[in-house]
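Morning run. Coffee first, then this:
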Amino acid sequence: MEHRKLAAALSAACFLYLQSFQAASEEELHVLLQGDSAATVARAVEEHGGDISHHLPIINAIGARMTRQQLDAVLLTGAVHQHMDDLGEQDPPEEDDAECRVRGQIEISLRDGQITWPLYNKKPKPATMQALELSWPASLGRIDRLRLGKVDIPIADHQQRQPGELKLNFTQDSGPVIDTREDLTLGFSSRNAQRLQQDFQQRDFKFIARFFGDCETDLVPGYSNNSGDYYYNTVASVDPLHLEGIRGQGITIAVADSGLWEHPRLMRDTRGQPRVLARYDAMTDTLDEEVVDESGHGTHMTSIIAHSGPTMKNGEPTGTYKGVAPDAGIVAIKILDRAGFAHLLDIVRAIQWVVDNRERYGIRVLNLSIAQQPRWHYWDDPVNQAAMRAWAAGIVVVAAAGNKGPDPMTIGSPGNLPYVITVGAVTDSWTPETRDDDYIPDFSSRGPTPSGHVKPDIVALGGHMTGLIHPDSSLAVDQPEDLLSGGEYASTGSSQAAAFVSGVVALLLQLEPELSPDDVKCKLTSSAEPAINSDGKLAYSPFEQGYGYVTASRAVTLGETGCGNLDLDISSDILTDRHFFGPAEIDDEGNASLPDMESLIAAEPSAKGLSTTRKWGVKDHIERTEKARPEHKPDESVRAFNWEALYLKEKAAIERLATGGAPQAKPDLPKRSYPRRD
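And here it is:
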């Protein structure tokens, strides 16, 4: 089942924690000091014997190492207006208190007349199997051999009573045991088994392995051709743009992450031309040296954004590509170490470098697939301060919402910054041919932010996203179950969703280079498709889906301009003259709501996977089949939205596009018509 894979992804380096630098002594602090100018603060620090670690003029700050006594002396000079002296504190790691943690390989092997499914035990103590449920096409006959590792599992007493099914139950003493890894192997009696690879796909089989300690793992359906086609470009309508030559050419994306594996499909574009324009290590403040990706996270993000390999069908290229923007320029920036940790000051330094070098390298997009627990008001957060300046400088900043859902108010920083494009995740449930089972998984962080802003802004594909990763990177070593037979890696998270959107932004900017960051945000939000219930209400709240599900072709054709961040003033925010609060009301117990929220959102939680009541987008909602309609029609007098009017306007816009006319502006969805408080 999908939740198995999604839960496993939470251990990936998509969620950022502050990492302490090694102190020279027990009393040494690592601090951030802000004043009227970074130079003035630096002089004060040096005069009192402190060591400067980071020059951060982008936020009028420096990072420094000093004792408490030295810090107190610097503060008395009046050069410092704000300081943070707890940067050495690290969020404690989350405890894994599960009795059992077994993961099945994301991909099975069908060859030599048998099926092999590797199982990995992620706990130091052995895992004992409690039950095994298997189903397969009846044409394969009976299972005549079943093994876990080198141990045969007796099946004579449990042989299927109906074709294609077998259920086994074990006691604590008799159950097969997994220490670290064992292969579950199945052989079949029919001659058809010799054609497993040719005639069958992974989705034809259903396996569930349960272990003592309330633990289970399921075989995911998988794709039919994962090495030849990564599918997310098909699901989110990027393919039609590729076929029209819209591939991000002329747009540079800075990926601030764990570095880059210099794989040929990442180093060169679809024409074979070099396209990695710069490499910057913000951890060591070095330029033009290889930024080795020990984690794998940064390579995976870059692969989603810009993999230049062609998609294949029946051994032939389709004219589309595996990355969203395969011709975009790339600037690789390292801020994460092998474990996926980064220091706040390094992130600020990375953003500063991007802003300082935006013209040199043509940087138009900054991907920040990171999320840390917010510790300050959005305007006091140093990373957010730097991100605001990047946005004001004309750089589109795309940030991950975080992987701390489904609880509300779990949006991470810098995704809690109201200006940037904050992206939550959607999964396609391994079915690229339909969106009826696409849903927002539990892990995707929910809004609102502590300042009452509705986040995420949009949701995008982030479930089991395929991409390149070095086989020796920590993700590949620690999560071998997510490696595919072709050498690719499938990972899940809002990090992947943000990377996907960064690629879409490059496509938009290729077509309209004059777009401002606010206009890009408007293009994405105005064209996003909300999940709508059959009763005409939203299937997910704005705190879960924002404006809705992003698809590339809609953003290009139907996206509007002039609506991004209209209720904000970034200049005032940067100057600290004025800060802004969103429409969400948050009570003393942390419960969040919006005006008229009960009339906006369906009463029942949206189902995971296939839903007969949920449709993505106004068109799909209005044109749903009669079979999927509710038995009773909603009371027209109390409807929250006039979906029919929106549908007609969208239909007219599409018709004009088909005849070469300009698209008509689509009105804002009512769900954003909330009063603002500031």
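Residues 232-530+542-568 form a domain with the Rossmann fold fold (CATH 3.40.50.200). Good start to the day.
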